[in-house]
């Protein structure tokens, strides 16, 4: 018999070909109910032969379960997010799920649109890395399990969240600089107003306080553009040097910004780490490939991805109730040539 | 009246609230048929008020059109692919589409699974960057428009494809090295067996031939692991130096591999570009951040993404027939410190 690839064979046709009932075909496909191994094998062989692919859209409408999840990320070109996303993908793919990645570009409207879009596609769960400080609860129409990663803007909601210890991260970075004798530590943070940048500033402030160093607002800088902009960070340090602003260290709350700062210091022949010390955040390519290599704070992206994936999976499969569990993962100081 | 966010309001309920028929509500939502501007505005206001979100899964089943597309990429953590993907996302989002990104990890089984998964979700089109040399046509069950990017493994099929001129890219890279006096040009390619790596080898061979330099198989190296492995490239050059293999240049068919080669050369105190010259491929962070900066071949990812997006969009919207159009984009040589 000719196998016409363009024609989609129905469950009924498969049943006829196998000489069994439609219910039996369904049991074989879904691996449920009473069915002998032999019958199951026979049905699956016929299905394989005819390349029957269940119309998952129709199936998910009936079951509201589609063996797929969505991941919303602010920027897949940012190494930190792409690492997390790839790990999530591996976790769920191994469990038989398709993973649909949506890039929100840190845009609140896009985040909302993608949330709705994933929701309407009836995915079984969503992992959400938001770029915002606050998002209202009207995002969610269906009662869909979702877990927040890295940022936690849902103060209105009671949702589970897995995050790296950003406060501790910038605390230990600042502490290192203080212990190496720095007193005038300039900071560069991104101005997307998200929660993780907020936490990093907090850790810096805490460390200064503990070591009785006064906080100087003139040393706090923000990037206006996308958080990726290292050229903007370079310009900030260029201007600080022009204006003779007094600083003996730079703590950039991202490696990209640290790289920009380093470029300015090198261009202006500033001795690093002799005259100015430098710390970044993320342990991304920017800090590893730079010359000199940049001291930074490593976040354990593998652990972050695996814990949040497991949490979502447990909720989706009913092993666990959806609570407002808050998991905080420790961070590590990576000392390199700039300190 | 209380607006209960958890309850999804039906089209019938909206019709009752507006005092119009269900057909009129449908016309307002879908912007079709005869309906006065005033009625339309009124219906849309009520919908907005009640946060009615049409169940897109049900809708797409009826219409087989879901205002969404899928993008299958081998590795979103690779800058080349993430740049293309982000540009595609922007293109389609601006046209009102959701873009679902799937990471195939260069795994043929995963590519197939994601293709089927996107297909069953009834996306309107697929942009496909394959990691394979060959894929059979039984991938496609539905008659869904799809456009191949960068790699073109579908010799059985007649599909449109947009690609950068890889043969020309490695030709001009090799030619630069020859013109600078190199005669023993070692190559490192990734061994994923994909079409783009194959083309790069071809361009290298063509240049040698045109300049009457014999091809020496002992200078051709392949990475066994994932194409990202720069440590493997470093090890290859380490071994070549140990064995005193004679070479005066390295052409690595990816910047990551070039970075690995550079690390080995620096470690072994080889004068760059004095004794050995180095060229990479991609113009990624690896070549830009390295010290010395690495000469490389830039592929125009923006143009690549925009042309393939436009092509898919035109086919999806019926402006254009699906043909086997082959678009090849020129590449640019970026000279830096290693040549």
Salient structural properties:
homodimer; 339 residues; alpha/beta; 6-stranded parallel sheet; 4-stranded parallel sheet; 12 helices; disordered N terminus
What this model shows, in words?
- 2 copies of one chain form a homodimer.
- A 6-stranded parallel β-sheet of chain A has the order 2-1-3-4-5-11, sandwiched between helices. Chain A has a 4-stranded parallel β-sheet with strand order 7-6-8-9, sandwiched between helices. A two-stranded antiparallel ribbon of chain A has the order 10-12.
- By secondary structure, chain A is an alpha/beta fold.
- In chain A, 43% of the residues lie in helices and 16% in strands.
- Chain A has helices at residues 11-18, 22-30, 37-50, 56-63, 79-94, 108-120, 166-179, 195-210, 230-242, 255-267, 285-289, 301-316, and strands at residues 68-73, 98-103, 125-128, 146-149, 161-164, 185-190, 220-223, 249-252, 277-279, 296-299, 326-329, 331-334.
- Chain A starts with 10 loop residues before the first helix and ends in a 5-residue tail after the last strand.
- Chain A is elongated, with a radius of gyration of 26 Å.
- Chains A and B meet through helix 4, helix 5, strand 2, helix 6 and helix 11 of A and helix 4, helix 5, strand 2, helix 6 and helix 11 of B.
Instruction: Record the strand order, biggest sheet of chain A.
Output: 2-1-3-4-5-11
Number of helices of chain A: 12
Q: What is the helix fraction of residues of chain A, given as a range?
A: 40-55%
Strand content of chain A: 15-25%
- Overall 3D geometry of chain A? elongated
Rg over C-alpha atoms of chain A, rounded to the nearest angstrom:
26 Å
Tally of strands of chain A: 12
Which class do the helix and strand fractions of chain A yield? alpha/beta
Mean pLDDT across every amino acid position of chain A: 84
Oligomer: homodimer
Stretches of chain A where pLDDT is under 50 for at least 5 consecutive residues are 1-7, 52-64
């Amino acid at each position: 018999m000719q196998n016409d690839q363009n024609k989609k064979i129905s469950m009924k046709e498969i049943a006829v070909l196998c000489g069994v009932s439609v219910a039996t075909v369904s049991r074989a496909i879904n691996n449920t109910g009473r069915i002998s191994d032999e019958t199951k094998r026979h049905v699956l062989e016929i299905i394989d032969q005819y390349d029957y692919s269940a119309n998952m859209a129709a199936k998910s409408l009936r079951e509201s379960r589609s063996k797929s999840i969505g991941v919303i990320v602010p920027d897949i070109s940012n190494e930190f997010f792409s690492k997390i996303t790839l790990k999530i993908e591996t976790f769920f793919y191994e469990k038989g799920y398709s993973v649909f990645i949506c890039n929100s570009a840190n845009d609140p409207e896009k985040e909302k649109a993608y949330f709705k879009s994933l929701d309407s596609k009836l995915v079984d769960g969503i992992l959400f890395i938001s770029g915002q400080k606050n998002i209202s609860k009207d995002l969610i129409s269906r009662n869909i399990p979702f877990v927040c990663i890295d940022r936690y803007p849902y103060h209105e909601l009671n949702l589970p969240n897995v995050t790296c210890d950003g406060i501790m991260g910038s605390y230990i970075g600042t502490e290192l600089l203080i212990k190496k004798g720095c007193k005038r530590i300039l900071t560069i943070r991104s101005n997307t107003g998200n929660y993780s940048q907020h936490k990093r500033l907090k850790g810096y402030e805490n460390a200064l306080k503990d070591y009785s160093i006064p906080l100087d607002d003139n040393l706090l800088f923000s990037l206006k553009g996308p958080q990726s902009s290292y050229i903007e960070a370079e310009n900030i340090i260029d201007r600080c040097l022009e204006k003779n602003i007094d600083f003996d260290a730079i703590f950039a709350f991202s490696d990209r910004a640290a790289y920009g700062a380093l470029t300015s210091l090198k261009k202006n022949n500033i001795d690093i780490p002799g005259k100015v010390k430098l710390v970044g955040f993320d342990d991304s390519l920017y800090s590893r490939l730079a010359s000199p290599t940049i001291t930074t704070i490593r976040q354990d992206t593998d652990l972050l991805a695996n814990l949040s994936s497991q949490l979502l999976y447990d909720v989706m499969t009913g092993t666990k109730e959806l609570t407002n569990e808050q998991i905080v993962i420790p961070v590590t100081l990576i000392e390199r040539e700039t300190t």
